[in-house]
Amino acid sequence: MSTAAQAIFDWFSRCSLPGWIAFSLAGNVAIFLLSIGLCWLLGFLFRDRPLFDRPQTVTRGDLGLACLAVVLNSAVAVVGWLLWKTGWIKITHPAWWRTLLDLLVFVGTMDLGMYLSHRLAHHPWFYARVHARHHTHESVNPISLFVLHPFEVLGFGGLMITVLVLLPLSGIAVLAYLTLNVLFGTLGHAGVEPFPPAWSRLPLLRDVGSSSFHAAHHRSPATNFGFYSTVWDRLFGTLD
Ligand SMILES: [Zn+2]
Ligand SMILES: [Zn+2]
After folding, report:
1. Can you tell me the distance from the alpha carbon of 219 to that of 139, in angstroms, rounded to the nearest whole number?
2. Which of 70, 143, 145, 165 is the most buried (most CB within 10 A)?
């Protein structure tokens, strides 16, 4: 597995700058389309478990902002690649147990960083200038995940790059984290709850940031600031 990851990262490293820019852009467009497709699929499969009365209308402004988010995410990928090529970011290829540990550390650190920055985004000054745009979606639609102020997109990218500069992490853990991030973001804006209700009573599973968890934040923005887990909301008393 480590050899396969090494081969992928070797290929990344052999890319030219224009090649990597094209790859990042194509990759982020694919992620955008896959996320929309997954939202529709979840909406269809779990149409008997809706979280909102009706989906948010998709506006032309939303589409423009979502396209800008895709371009900015690609720019973040280019910055990350340049920092890796110049040795500021170190990627390792350790044994499976270390990869698993790295994934837990990366998800945990980003979860805390995103919880804190999301709380900051709800400070009246930042909220009015930056975060209010995402909350124009009082319910959700398949592009809600990407309807973000450009500063938020770059803020998330900046946080991820900062963690990667500070912590040398397993290549597979980084790829797995990026995949989980899109899955959780899509789930949070799917508008339906695919998780069985019993999960919310089981240890560990009840701490996973479900679709209802982020949907509740869109309905009542003073609660549920976390993304991947409910841990920080539980700890800081902001859980709905
Ligand atoms: Zn949201
Ligand atoms: Zn918010």
Report:
1. 7
2. 145
Ligand nearest to the CA of 123: 2
Ligand 1 mean position to 88 CA, how many Å? 32
Cα–ligand 2 centroid distance for 217 (angstroms): 7
Distance 189 CA to ligand 1 centre (A): 6
The pair of structure tokens assigned to 234 is: 């539980």
Which ligand ends up closest to the CA of 130? 2
Shortest CA distance to 114 belongs to which of 172, 177, 192?
A: 177
In tens, the pLDDT along 32-49 reads 999 999 999 999 999 999
Confidence tier at 2 by pLDDT (50, 70, 90): low
The structure's pTM equals 0.92
